[in-house]
Each structure stands twice: as C-alpha cells, then as structure tokens.
Specification:
- This protein has two domains: about 130 residues, Rossmann fold; about 140 residues, Response regulator (Rossmann fold).
- It is about 45% helix and about 20% strand.
- It has a six-stranded parallel sheet with strand order 2-1-3-4-5-11, with helices on both faces. A six-stranded mixed sheet has the order 7-6-8-9-10-12, with helices on both faces.
- It is elongated, with a radius of gyration of 23 Å.
- The protein binds alpha-L-arabinofuranose (AHR).
Length: about 325
C-alpha cells in the first residue's frame, strides 16, 4: 500500500502541474489598449517594438494607437479604448498635465490604468494603478556628474531640452541642474527644446552655433541621443569637432549613440531602457487578475562613456 502510494505521488504531481499549465494557457487573456506617444526617437521605436513583441508572445489582443506626439490624439485613443471595452489601458503620456478628465472617464468605466515610461501629474493618485518607468531625475544627475568629472567642474553648456511639459524634459533638467548647484564652474548658457527628435536637435544646435557667443561653448547636454546625433551633424557642418571641441553627454543609450562614441563624436550616454515590454505585460496581467501591485516600478539602468563604447556596442539590442 505504502509503495503503491509512493509510486503514485509523482504521477499525481505531474498531472497537477500539467493541469495548471493548461489552465494558465486557457485563462482568458486581457484585451489591452496602449496609447503610444509616437515615433519621435530611436528609443521610442525600440519601446514600441518591445511592447508589440511581448503582447504577441503572450497571445494578448493589443489595441495599439500612435498619437504622433499630440496629447489630443492620445486622449481620443483613450476614449476609443473605453468605447471598445478593453480590460486594461496602458499609455505613455506625452506631457505630464491635462489627463485628469479622461482618467476620470476611464475610472468611471471601471478600467484599470497602467502608466508606461512617463508619469502624469494628477491630484487623485487612484486614477491609475501603477507607473513603470525610469527615474528621469536620476538620469539628469548621472549626466551632470559625468560631465563634472570629465571637465573638472568647468563647462559652458548648451542644453537641448526634450518635449516641453514632458516628464523626461522636466526631470532630466532638474537632476542635471542639481549637479550644477554643486559645481559653480559649470553653467548652462543656452537652452532650447529640440522636441526629442534628431531634426529638432540639429536645427536648434545650428542656431546655437550661429549666435555671437557660440565660441564660448565647451559642452552640450542633450536630453536624448537623437537630439545629440542631430547636434553632432550641426557641429561638424560648422567646422568643429564634436566630442572634442564640444564635449557631449546625452541620455538613452541607443545603438547610434554607441556608434558615435566609437567614432569619437559623442562622449557619454546615460542609459534609459526602452525594453520594458516584458515587465509591462507582467504588470498588466497581474492588474487584470485583480492582484495588488506596487504603485511605482523602476527600471535598472547604467552609464556608458567613450572608454566602454566599443566593448558594449555588440551587446546593444536597440
Ligand atoms: O520618455 C523617454 C524619452 O522619450 C526618451 O529619452 C526619448 O528618446 C523619448 O523620445
């Protein structure tokens, strides 16, 4: 009797685990509405790819809408997700403010919201369940710290700011300026938005370089790699050497930034990881299952400078 039972135990365990796999496979997958900002940068494209690939891998019905960097388009998309009766709504808000009315409509419809990549400013935190994204203030600090070390705390800086009103533009500036308060020999003398795009970065840098005091510039802080890459073009066209005449630090860590570092044209990039699809859908599935999750999920990131670029380049996945 005893030995029969011992022989049966593995069989029972096997069928229990097979049954739970089957159950997980047949459990209803949530229908998810995702409103993306647009395709303004290499980072954003990698973020979209990661989200779509993960949804496909999990067999999730993803309603994906590209807002072409316009808040009004995002609001329209969010309302259409309510009308379609999706189970969970996720979105990357282009700017921080102006979401309260539509978030209230979503809440009234009983649909949970997950914020991805960027946060919103709302007076009622119950308007969303959780926010997964990078610590943009810390990224700004890391860029400032690196520049302070590189320049011995002496730099006349031009700043290429991200989309006005967006969380990364506000927070990266804040973090970077925190470092400047501790380094009185470093100052920002020019600051303008390039809207996180390569074309915007090039255009603004051209204008900076045409101004009468352009010669005093020794450094550039770009809020993302795309703007830095556009600025590099403008610097070269002005007959200067990017990475040497002007020290450049930016944020994201896209492949193009590593290539520019290997070519000696960019000096440092602070990583901002766009590949958050797997983490995002873990959260979405937990939310859909009614599980309790933390209100803030951070993404782990590093800093890479020109001395590490060649070794790291083959590892870059975006
Ligand atoms: O919100 C993340 C930022 O948005 C990335 O740094 C930038 O490249 C993107 O457009």
């Amino acid at each position: 009797m005893h030995s029969l039972f011992r022989r049966l135990v593995p069989l029972i365990a096997l069928s229990v685990s097979a049954a739970s796999v089957l159950l997980a496979q047949t459990a209803k997958k949530p229908v998810v509405g995702f409103s993306q900002i647009g395709a303004e940068s290499g980072w954003r494209t990698a973020n979209t790819d990661s989200i779509k690939a993960e949804a496909a891998k999990r067999g999730i019905d993803l309603k994906f809408a590209d807002a072409q960097q316009k808040q009004e388009n995002q609001i329209k998309a969010l309302r259409s997700f309510i009308a379609q009766g999706v189970d969970v709504i996720a979105f990357s808000p282009v700017v921080e403010t102006g979401w309260e009315p539509v978030l209230k409509e979503i809440k009234a419809a009983g649909i949970p919201v997950v914020l991805s990549d960027r946060a919103v400013k709302v007076s009622d935190p119950s308007l969303y369940v959780t926010f997964i994204g990078s610590d943009f203030i810390e990224e700004g600090r890391r860029a400032g710290d690196w520049l302070a070390k590189k320049t011995g705390g002496k730099a006349v800086i031009a700043e290429l700011v991200g989309t006005p009103g967006s969380a990364p533009a506000i927070d990266r500036k804040k973090g970077f300026e925190e470092i400047l308060t501790r380094n009185p020999g470093m100052k920002i003398v020019k600051s303008q938005s390039g809207d996180f795009t390569r074309a915007g970065g090039k255009q603004v840098m051209e204008a900076f370089l045409k101004s009468p005091d352009a010669k005093q510039l020794t450094a550039l802080f770009a809020h993302n790699d795309d703007m830095a890459l556009g600025a590099i073009q403008a610097i070269e066209e002005a007959g200067l050497k990017p990475g040497k005449d002007i020290i450049i630090v930016s944020i994201d860590g896209v492949r193009g930034a590593f290539e520019a570092m290997v070519a000696g044209k960019l000096n440092c990039t602070v990583e901002c990881n766009p590949q958050i699809g797997p983490q995002l859908f873990n959260l979405i599935e937990q939310v859909a299952a009614g599980q309790k999750i933390p209100a803030r999920i951070a993404v782990k990131e590093g800093v890479f400078d020109e001395t590490q670029a060649a070794a790291e380049l083959p590892n870059r996945k975006y």
